[in-house]
Specification:
- 2 copies of one chain form a homodimer.
- By secondary structure, chain A is of the alpha+beta class.
- Chain A has a single domain, classed as Aminopeptidase, CATH 3.40.630.
- The first copy, chain A, contains 6 helices and 7 strands; from the N terminus they run βααβββαβαβαβα.
- In chain A, strand 3 and strand 4 form a beta hairpin.
- In chain A, helix 1 crosses helix 2.
- The longest helix of chain A has 15 residues.
- Chains A, B: Pfam families: Acetyltransf_1.
- Chains A, B: This is Diamine acetyltransferase 2b.
- Chains A, B: One of its GO terms (molecular function) is N-acetyltransferase activity.
- Chains A, B: Belongs to the acetyltransferase family.
Chain lengths: 171, 171
């Protein structure tokens, strides 16, 4: 199958939004998606973007049964480790089910890794749910280390009221 | 004790570098620190900074026994959740041992939360090592959720050769 990977443009926001929802359906939490394609466009394509995205496209003649030619995406941003410096973090990696098993996911992830190298990032990081064994195995087979298993890292979040309360205590 | 919190400036890079090393010594891994104050200055204070930092200062008359008035820092950056949007991530929170127990750590963290709110971030995230019980308890007491414990998030990393190999496979 022919496909190409390219940097997302503002006009891809609707397709990205559609695939974010498809991924949430796969993860059985579609009601958790609170973001619109307008917000995605604003947050990803301004002067200081909050994220970056690459998308996978197929030729018109190979479009999905619903008529889509944009069939996958990887969304990422830059983070920082105070011991090692620049890091690239892949938040989402998604390929539409009917286009899986054709190397599109690997191509998206490899593109993110290459972009990271170009930006002098020392490593590529991501998070996976422990019940999502196929994804976990995919990443481990590609050489990822599971730092939660080996070093004991726990991921914490202050949400809603807890964050509000913290912010109010600022001097 | 008097102290103030302010945004870090390029000339704070040496103090930030010193405190990063102090934190690594506390975590028993000082040999892991591979970053110089020059890199910190370049990465944190350019046109598209890879991180942001706030520091805690005490008046000259209350300086540390080694003569430092910069006694703590919180280092953070912006990340993105595709379901909720903008997020602020606190990578490091550190207060020099002789200045602990005076509310400086809370003030630094609250300042990061307030900055996140100003940037319309929906939440504040961070990671903690499971053996670092005092820090874990501190964050949980302040209202953080432990998403590794409750949802099963694992943190993965492609480092060195694994990242290199991925990048080489990019189309």
């Amino acid at each position: 199958m022919d496909f190409s990977i390219r940097a997302a443009k503002p006009e891809d926001s609707k397709d990205i939004s559609r695939m974010i929802m498809e991924l949430a359906v796969y993860e059985k939490m579609p009601d958790q998606v609170k973001i619109s394609h307008k917000e995605l466009e604003q947050d990803g394509f301004g002067a200081n973007p909050f994220y970056h995205c690459v998308i996978a496209e197929v030729p018109e003649k190979q479009k999905s049964k619903d008529g889509h030619t944009t069939v996958g995406y990887a969304l990422f941003f830059y983070t920082y480790r105070t011991w090692k410096g620049r890091t690239i973090y892949m938040e989402d990696l998604y390929v539409m089910p009917e286009f899986r098993g054709k190397g599109i996911g690997k191509a998206l992830m490899s593109t993110v890794a290459r972009i990271g190298q170009e930006q002098q990032c020392a490593c590529l990081q991501l998070s996976v749910l422990d019940w999502n064994r196929p994804s976990l195995d995919f990443y481990l087979a590609k050489g990822a280390q599971d730092l939660t298993a080996t070093e004991g890292w726990h991921f914490l979040r202050f949400d809603g009221d807890a964050m509000e309360k913290l912010a109010q205590e600022a001097p």
